[in-house]
Each structure stands twice: as C-alpha cells, then as structure tokens.
Amino acid sequence: MQYALLIYEDEAIYGPGKKGSAIQEIVSRHMTFNRELGARRVGGAGLSATASATTIRTKGGKQSVHDGPYAESKEQLGGFYLIEAKDLDEAIAIAKKVPVLQDGSIEVRPVLGPG
Amino acid sequence: MSGAALEGVFREASGRIVGALAARFRDLALAEDAFSEACARALKDWPAREVPADPAAWLYQVAVHAALDGLRRRQTHARFESQLSAEFDAQAAPEDDYTVIPDERLRLIFICCHPAVSDDARAALTLRLVCGLSTLEIARTFLVSETTMAQRLTRAKNKIADAGIPFELPAAQFWPERLDSVLATIEIAYSKAHEDAAGSGPHAHFAAEMLELTRTLVQLLPDEAEAAALAAMVRFAEARRPARIDGAGLMVPLSEQDPQCWQRSLIDEANGYLNRAAAVDSNSARVIQAQIHAAWCSRHTREAPPPWPQVLALYDALLYRRDDPVVRLNRVVAVAEVHGVQTALSQVESMDRELLRDFAPYHAVRADLLRRAGRREAAQRAYDEALATISSQAERQWLTRQRDLNLAPDS
After folding, report:
1. Is the ipTM of this complex over 0.85?
2. Of A87, A93, A114, the CB nearest to B164
3. How crowded is the C-beta side of B9, counted as CA atoms within 13 Å?
4. What is the pTM of this model?
C-alpha cells in the first residue's frame, strides 16, 4: 500500500520565510531520513510557509481565489512523504522516524485506490 | 434446540469462526457477514431437521462458503481479482476439514484493539467480534442507542479495512504498546460489567464473557505477566460480587463486605493466575493491582483486620509504576486508615480538581473524608457532586444514605 505521511509542526519555530539555522537543521535531518527510507520513498517535499499559500475555493460552482492556507491552526502542514509500506503497522513505524524539530504530528493516510 | 440454546452456540462459536475467516480472507466485514449468514441458515435449517453433531463445524463450513460467494459477487465488479478467486477456490476444496477451526482469536483481538481504532470503539468491537455479543447488548452496556453503536462499529471496521491495519500479530517493536491497548480495552469492557454491583442490570452475563475472554488471552499468551494479572483481577472482583450489595440494594464498601459471601472458587482461580503472573514479572503495574485485590480477598471473616497497611504499601509501589489520579485516589483511602483522616484529606485537596470534575469516586472519597473530619457543610456539597456524576443505582443509594447520615445529629 501507499501512504502519505503529512508533517504538521508550528511553522513559527522556523522563523518567517523558513530561513535560518532551524530550517537547515531539520532539512539535514530529512536528508538522513531520506537515505534511510531508500526505495520505500515514492515521493515527498517540504513546503514553504503558509504565508505564501493561496487557496482556491469553489462554492456553488463559483471559484474564488484567497490569500492564506485553507485552515488556520496551531500546527501547519509543512511537508509530506509518499511511501510504500506493507501495512499500517509498517507505515506507523516509518512515521515515528520522520524528524520534527520540537513538537509536531505526523498524520498517516492511505493513498486512495490500488496502491 | 431452543432459541436461547441456539444463541449460546452462535455466541460460543463467534470469536473462533470470525477470527478464522478474517485471517483467511483478510477482510473483517466479509468474515462477519459470512458468519451472520451461517447463523441465519442455522436458524432456518436446524429446527426443521436435526441439529448437526458438531454445530461449530457446520457453521464454519457454511460461513466459508458464504464468504467465497461474497468474494465472487464482488469480483463481478472487479475482474482484476480473478486470480485471487482461483486461489481461494482451491483453498475451499471439498476435503477441507471443518471440524478443526484454526484459532485466530488472538489476531482478531489485536486487530480490534489496534491503537489506530478509536478508543471508544475498541472495547465495543472486541465484544462484538470476539465475544459475539449483539450490537443491542453492547449499546445497552455503553449507554448509547443501538443506531449509534452500529455506526461506531461500522466506522471502526471501515477504518481497519481502509487504513490497512494488518491481520498479523504485532511485530516485536510494537508488542508492548499493542498488548497494553488490548489489556486496557478488556479493563474498560470489564469495568462496564463491574459498575453494576448487583450484576442484574444490562451487564448481567457480560462478566462471564470477561472471565472467558481473559482466560483465552492467558491461554494464547502464556508468558505475559500482565495478561495473567488481568485474568486474576477480573476473578477477584467477580468473586466479591455477591457481597457488593446488601439486602436493601445498597452498595457495600469493600472493607465492610462479608468475606463469607465471596466466591472462594473464583478467588482460588485468581490466586493461581496471580502466582503465575508474579513468577514472570512481580513489578508490573497490573500484577501489583492484582496483589491489592489478593490482599483483600485473603480475609475469611468480617472480624479479620482489614489489610490497610499492606494495601497502602502496594499502592505506594503502584504509584511508582503508574502515577495517575485513580491510583492516587485509591491510595488516599488507604492513607486515611493508616495515617489518619487529616493527612488523607490534605492529599485529596492537593489533587487537580478540574481534571477530576466528572470522576465520581473523587467526589465520593472527598465527601467521606470531609464527613469524617467533621466538616459537614463541605461534605454535603461533595456528596451532591458525587451524586451528580454517578449512574449506578446501588452506589447512588449508598451515597445518599451516607449524605443523610452526615446530616444526622449523631454522625
């Protein structure tokens, strides 16, 4: 099966624009993790801060473009992995190793369809 | 065979057959539907003819074929599974021996109690699939409507299928976390049975299911101290049930119960499990909890001194392992007996009131200590708070009497 691992952290700890030493540290930890993942990594990326987000909303068939992320929350989606795992237990084992700088959550979601 | 007898046969066969089907077809919903279909067939066929010599084998065989039919029906929608179908067809050869149902109940229990299943559904799902209780029975136990419970069960089963929860026993690195989830789930299920002191309410035969389930678990996991300790605890608690309520329907606190009313055979059984658990790991939290039960159950008459010092020492040990408000509160009760009411009261007052707001035992213990310390008005308010959070009839009546005693001039 394929699973998406969605990484939620308080982006404030990485400073405005996600520049500086904190982001360098976490990126280098992700590089190490990537090597460990090897062939089980199908895809993934880190995301720019939510200040750069734009949301396109469809309501009643009409589309409108808005500044900002879809939802305001204390922890924001900051990146994701797409992985190949035998089952949820294996996906959880991998998710537990996804680096976070301080507090954070990794949401494990199966990818729809025959994976 | 009467309707009730048939129900008994279905219930007994349920966990084994659903477990075997789920392990074979890797599909919980298919397994459950197939078993229901087999039971429906039995209800129709058995009264008309003779009941088969081995009813479980009959049900299993019919259920396997029902599951295969279910799979074939699905495949008309999804042709890519045809290869799978050939494989399953081969598995259902006529020479299959249906009298030996593979025991996959442990896998089934671990699936039902997976931490990825919402915690309010884990106990319900275990009771449904492993113990074979009906949705209505479980709904009554959890004090929700049958519709709500049916939705909760369906959501949990969908989660198991969609999230890819494996039909395998957990790997070594997950074992402690997963086993704890299983044991905690059984504890929740049992506490539902135990709430009803008389054992005559909606949970009447529920306690028997817990005895059976914990026995099965120890059989399947002979080397796990915590599993044996849980089996011991359930038995110690069940043994005392006849003494938990007096002639007027009032709850009787443990220290005032008449040990001669306790069921000795269950206590003996419990001690057997406890010895087994302590031999493996005498320091685990559940083993200590079982030892506390054992200390109480070692009394043979009402005149024997209550084992408060021993109980306090055990709670001290338990607190070191598992520091939570429930343990602290139970420890305070022992502190009051060993070190006096004032010491106990100051410990209760230092606990987090907001966190314990809806926890009836907190208010009840606090009320009792306030009453004994002579602080009648504060005690009165605490009794009211306890009564506002409690649902069991016997406990309500007992608390009401305590509250009224508090008001009486000579108390």
Report:
1. no
2. A87
3. 23
4. 0.79
Between A85, A89, A91, which is nearest B171 by CB? A89
Nearest residue to A94 via CA among A33, A14, A52: A33
Which of chain A's residues have a Cβ under 8 Å away from the Cβ of B81?
none
Report the residue from B80, B163, B173 with minimal CB separation from A88: B163
CATH number of A2-110: 3.30.70.1060
Helix (H) or strand (E) holding A59: strand A54-59
Task: Mention every residue, 6+ apart, whose C-beta is less than 8 A from residue B83.
Answer: none
Choose the mutation target among B162, B178, B181 for the interface with A, i.e. most A CBs under 10 Å. Answer: B162
Q: Do A93 and B116 touch (CB under 8 A)?
A: no
Q: What is the pLDDT along chain B (411 residues), one digit of tens a residue?
A: 677 778 888 888 888 899 999 999 988 989 999 999 999 999 998 888 788 889 999 999 999 999 999 988 887 766 555 555 555 554 555 556 788 888 888 889 999 999 999 988 998 999 889 888 889 888 877 778 999 999 999 999 999 988 999 988 888 888 888 899 999 888 888 877 666 665 565 555 677 778 888 998 899 899 999 999 999 999 999 999 888 888 887 888 888 899 999 999 999 999 999 999 999 999 999 999 999 999 999 999 999 999 999 999 999 999 999 888 889 999 999 999 999 999 999 999 999 888 888 888 899 999 999 999 999 999 999 999 998 887 777 788 888 888 888 777 654
Across the interface, do B166 and A87 touch by the CB < 8 Å criterion? yes
Does any CB of chain B come closer than 8 Å to the CB of residue A5? no
| CATH T-level topology, domain B330-411 | 1.25.40
Distance (Å) of CA A103 to CA A12, A107, B252: 12, 14, 47
Residues from chain B contacting residue A92 (CB–CB below 8 Å): 116, 174
| Range(s) of chain B covered by CATH 1.25.40 | 330-411
Domain boundaries, chain A: 2-110
Do residue A89 and residue B174 have CB atoms under 8 angstroms apart?
yes
- Which residues share a beta bridge with A55? A66
